[in-house]
Amino acid sequence: MAVEKGGSEAEQALVDQWRDMLALHARTQCELDRALHRHGLCASDFEVLDVLAESPARDVSCGFRVQEIAERVHLSQSALSRLIARLEKDGLVERGLCAEDRRGVRVALTGKGRALHGDVRPVQRAVLTRMLTD
């Protein structure tokens, strides 16, 4: 292992570990996208459905606030808004105004979204198992 001038072996090991994590993330993301594409989803779509599926909410008044979803799926607010609009257009989620804050938006799975999530969840979990276990 070549150590750059001024860098220690410990620093280089840390950088190598970071790069290995990035590579594993990229490979896993590609595998998820490939597997989920057969079901009309990408990995980010599924992540949003998966977060929403954790809520027992059956209507939008009890769904997650967009800000709560953004924190869990690590997307910008604007990227998440576009993704949610696409999922809504496909009939997988519904949006509504927050009763407690009229500027906020809540999102919940529709019946169609809950069914698709149930069908696709084993596919996503299988990819994660294959990619992330030794």
Automatic annotation (TrEMBL):
Q: Which PROSITE patterns would you find in this protein's record?
A: HTH_MARR_1, HTH_MARR_2
What is a single molecular function from GO for this protein?
A: DNA binding
> What Pfam family does this protein match (any one)?
MarR_2
Q: Which CDD domains match?
A: HTH_ARSR
Q: Which UniProt keywords apply?
A: DNA-binding, Transcription, Transcription regulation
Tell me if Transcription regulation is a UniProt keyword of this record.
yes
Kindly list any coiled-coil regions of this protein: none
Keyword Transcription recorded: yes
Segments forming domain HTH marR-type? 1-134
Which PANTHER family does the entry link to? MARR FAMILY REGULATORY PROTEIN, TRANSCRIPTIONAL REGULATOR, MARR FAMILY
What's the protein called, per UniProt? DNA-binding MarR family transcriptional regulator
Q: What species is this protein from?
A: Streptomyces achromogenes
Output the lineage of the source organism: Bacteria, Bacillati, Actinomycetota, Actinomycetes, Kitasatosporales
